[in-house]
């Protein structure tokens, strides 16, 4: 995959390493986790 979006990465992590059910695409949980991933990546990029 050339580009992976934050919500897709959350779903991949839920299913593969965590062996959990994927979240509903329109859920508050995936929106919150996706926002966290985007924020964490931005902070990491600023530090490096």
From TrEMBL:
UniProt-recorded Gene Ontology molecular function terms: electron transfer activity; heme binding
Top-level taxonomic group: Bacteria
Name this polypeptide is given: Uncharacterized protein
Source organism of this protein record: Vreelandella azerica
């Amino acid at each position: 995959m050339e580009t992976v979006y934050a919500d897709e990465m959350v779903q991949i992590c839920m299913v593969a390493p965590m062996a959990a059910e994927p979240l509903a695409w329109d859920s508050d949980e995936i929106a919150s986790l996706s926002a966290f991933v985007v924020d964490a990546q931005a902070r990491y990029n600023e530090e490096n």
